[in-house]
């Protein structure tokens, strides 16, 4: 938990703070280079990584970590999973 409010957890600022702590911890273990695998939720949800993914990568690069390969490992369904709602769509 890097931020106090629960609504601020998925924001880029919280992701940046977490990435800085992880980079500092890895430097203590003398890890200086890494390969990154990004994963989104998928299923019948979004297939793109969240808003914190880009700020995570930027914070890791700025903290001195060498980034080798960035790979998207989001599972993509081969069958078309139906979204929530009926013919009229998901109504709020």
Measured on Cα atoms, how large is the radius of gyration?
A: 17 Å
Q: What do we call the CATH homologous superfamily of the domain at 9-72?
A: Ribosomal protein S11/S14
Which sequence of strands runs across the widest sheet?
1-2
Summed up, the helix count is 2
Q: State the low-pLDDT regions, or none.
A: none
Q: Per the principal axes of the C-alpha atoms, what is the gross shape?
A: flat
Question: How would you describe the overall organization of this protein?
Answer:
The chain has 92 residues and is α+β, with helices and mostly antiparallel strands. Helix content is 30%, strand content 14%. The protein contains 2 helices and 2 strands, in the order αβαβ. It has helices at residues 12-28, 52-62; strands at residues 33-38, 66-72. Strands 1-2 form a two-stranded parallel ribbon. Helix 1 runs parallel beside helix 2. InterPro entries: Ribosomal_uS11, Ribosomal_uS11_CS, Ribosomal_uS11_sf. Keywords: Ribonucleoprotein, Ribosomal protein. This is Small ribosomal subunit protein uS11. Belongs to the universal ribosomal protein uS11 family.
Topology summary:
Elements: H1 12-28, E1 33-38, H2 52-62, E2 66-72
Question: What are the main properties of this structure?
Answer:
92 residues, alpha+beta, Nucleotidyltransferase, domain 5, two-stranded parallel ribbon, 2 strands, 30% helix
């Amino acid at each position: 938990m890097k931020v106090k409010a629960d609504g601020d957890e998925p924001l880029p600022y919280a992701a940046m703070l977490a990435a800085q702590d992880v980079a500092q911890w890895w430097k203590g273990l003398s890890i200086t280079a890494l390969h990154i695998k990004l994963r989104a939720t998928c299923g019948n949800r979004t297939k793109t990584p969240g808003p914190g993914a880009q700020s995570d990568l930027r914070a890791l690069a700025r903290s001195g970590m060498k980034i080798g390969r960035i790979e998207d490992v989001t599972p993509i369904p081969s069958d078309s999973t139906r979204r929530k709602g009926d013919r009229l769509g998901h109504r709020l």
